[in-house]
Amino acid sequence: MSGILLMLLSLFVFGAAYRYYGQYLSNKLKIDPSRETPSHTMYDGVDYVPAKTPVLLGHHFASIAGVGPIVGPVIAVSFGWLPVYAWVLIGAVLIGGVHDFSTIVASIRHNAKSIGQIIESYIGLSGKKLFLLFAWATLILVIAVFTIIVTDTFAAIPSSATSSILFIALAILFGLSIYRYKVPLWIATIIGVMLLFISIYLGYIFPIQFDKVTWQLLLFVYIFAASVTPVWILLQPRDYLNSYFLYLLIAAGTLGLFFSAPVIHQPAFAAFEVKNVGFLFPALFVTVACGAISGFHSIVASGTTAKQLNNEKDARVIGYGGMLIEGVLAVLSLVAVASMNNDMFRETLLNKGPVTAFSIGVAAFIDNIPLLNIPIDVSTSFVALAVSAFALTTLDTATRLARYSFQEFFEISGKTNKNTLVQNRFVSTFITIVIAGALTFSGQTMAIWPVFGSANQLLAALALLAITVWVSKLNMNINFAFIPMTFMFAVTLTALAMLFYTNLIGNNYILSFISMLLFVLAVILGLQAYKVLRRNGKEVALAK
Q1: Shortest CA distance to 265 belongs to which of 344, 349, 363, 330?
Q2: Residue-wise burial string across 93-109, b where 16 or more C-beta atoms lie within 10 A, e elsewhere
Q3: Domain extents in the chain
Q4: CA–CA separation, 146 vs 67, rounded Å?
Q5: Residue 526 has pLDDT above 70, yes or no
Q6: Cα 350–353–358 angle (5° rounding)?
Q7: Using CA atoms, how far apart are residues 55 and 313, in angstroms rounded to an integer?
Q8: CA angle 414, 127, 543 (to 5 degrees)
Q9: Lower Cβ count inside 10 Å, N or C end of the chain?
């Protein structure tokens, strides 16, 4: 099988999906460019700030991408390349794209509040409390895990630490130039991207070295600041500039793929069960999250993205389009490792990890671009640096989103009282980071990663559940959200039941309890939603 053929087919499918299914969804959701968004009606200069389309796409894409669309496909290729490829294409188009796009629209129609607020409006307050508690706990785990990932990267590649610090300073200058000094976006972007690559060069010249504990403490200080400062001065511009890293990575990797013309060496189907991963169902659909569908996207979409959406028409570009771009990255990741011979793939994955496997594979593509003449070790380092930059992006975005979830949990009638201690953004952020820090230093973070994978996809199922109930209340056909929701519930409930049993017989009672708790939560919310859907159906029938 040709790697070029796989990439061309995916580009065709994603392009057609954006043109036709994206427009279908826009019609279903009644997108109205004349309707003001919360970034204007609720502007506060801190969280609610309108952003230009390319800037918000950069922030949204950088936040949802992270290492997910890279790590998932690389690990899951052990099942064979065909199941992974099919899931990415079908998932991104019919499930993930619907999930992200619909979540943004539902959020802006509810004052840019989270999915929890939507659940309260249509299912009840108890449903909202359960969802927000679950979302906050999941984000705590994201913060802890990504702190470790970024710390390990900084300690292993000191140049990436220097570059990342310079990126932060550059983002502040970029934000000030756009919003305070009104520099045209295109001029600021050209200068910003040039300085971005100069920062990479300076990182190689002046690497900063600290031990892991020092980096962890510094990261916690940074994410506290990033969570409480206005989005326009750090979070938004940094993610926008960093997105050019990933755009360049995708463009260079795809171009190199066409020049290198790789042949897929991994089998189309290898096994129904893979050691340390699980059975094809449900493990494939939990392992390959970002790139197909990820519950974390719904928190980003209804958290930072909805609060910055300038116009309703931008939701399609950012929500559906952003998901499809991530699908392209997932396909590139798949082809990069599936084109390795089996021994090289196994050795690299087991001894160096999925990010390194991806970096080596994509660097090999870039090495084949004529006239570029970039040494293979330099291109490998560039790919690894780009990945680490997005891990840091996910880290600070997750912290702000955890703060939102914490504040919303204590809201009364959908309103935040910033004078209340637990709803103060400084206090809520501090509590979040302290708990995430305790988990980080406990040394147990990676042990609960499989449960997190299932929890992440359960978030997606619950977000689709909220969308389904919301759409049913509007007396519209719910199938575009209901069918993906049903599938994701089947995946996550099966995965959690298997994790409960596996951890129980392995005497890991804490993880067994967490798995069962998540299972029960999903069932309770599902039953509550079923009652609402039945009631809405009867109301529609009576109206007719």
Answers
A1: 344
A2: bbbbbbbbbbbbbbbbb
A3: 3-37+79-158+244-261+274-543
A4: 10
A5: yes
A6: 120
A7: 15
A8: 85
A9: C
Single-letter residue type at 6:
L
Q: Which contacts of 135-139 are long-range, i.e. CB under 8 A and separated by 24 or more positions?
A: 135/299, 135/405, 135/459, 136/402, 136/405, 136/406, 136/409, 136/432, 137/455, 138/295, 138/296, 138/452, 138/455, 138/456, 138/459, 139/299, 139/398, 139/399, 139/401, 139/402, 139/405, 139/432
CA-to-CA dists, residue 8 to 15, 83, 264, 328, 331, angstroms: 11, 18, 14, 10, 10
Do 70 and 355 contact (CB within 8 A), yes or no? yes
SS3 263: strand
Q: What value does the mean pLDDT take over residues 373-383?
A: 76
Q: For residue 274, report the phi and psi dihedrals to the nearest 5 degrees.
A: -120, 130
pLDDT grade, residue 203 (50/70/90)?
Answer: confident
pLDDT at 542: 37
pLDDT tens-digit readout, 440-461: 887 765 566 677 788 888 889 9
pTM of the model: 0.86
Q: What is the CATH number of domain 3-37+79-158+244-261+274-543?
A: 1.20.1740
Span 102-115, pLDDT tens digits: 999 999 999 998 88
pLDDT at residue 447, as a whole number: 61
Q: How confident is the model at residue 204 (pLDDT cuts 50, 70, 90)?
A: confident
User: Is 365 within 8 Å of 258 (Cβ atoms)?
Assistant: no
Report pLDDT digits (tens) over 224-248: 998 899 888 888 888 888 888 778 8
What number of residues does the chain have?
544
Confidence (pLDDT) at 543? 44
Name 159's Cβ contacts closer than 8 Å, sequence gap at least 6. Answer: 200, 203, 204, 207, 381, 385
Q: Using alpha carbons, list the distances in angstroms from residue 446 to 102, 141, 284, 439, 511.
A: 32, 9, 19, 10, 12
SS3 at position 468: helix
Place of tokens 């399609």: 316
Place of tokens 């994790």: 499
The whole-angstrom separation of Cα 90 and Cα 97 is: 10
Which helix (H) or strand (E) segment is 279 a member of? strand 278-279
Burial class (CB within 10 angstroms; exposed 0-12, middle 13-18, buried 19+) of 476: middle
Question: pLDDT tens across 406-452, in order?
Answer: 888 887 665 555 557 777 889 999 999 999 998 888 776 556 667 77
Handedness of CA 184, 189, 192, 198 (dihedral sign): negative
Pick the closest to residue 359 from 153, 55, 112, 88 (CA basis): 153
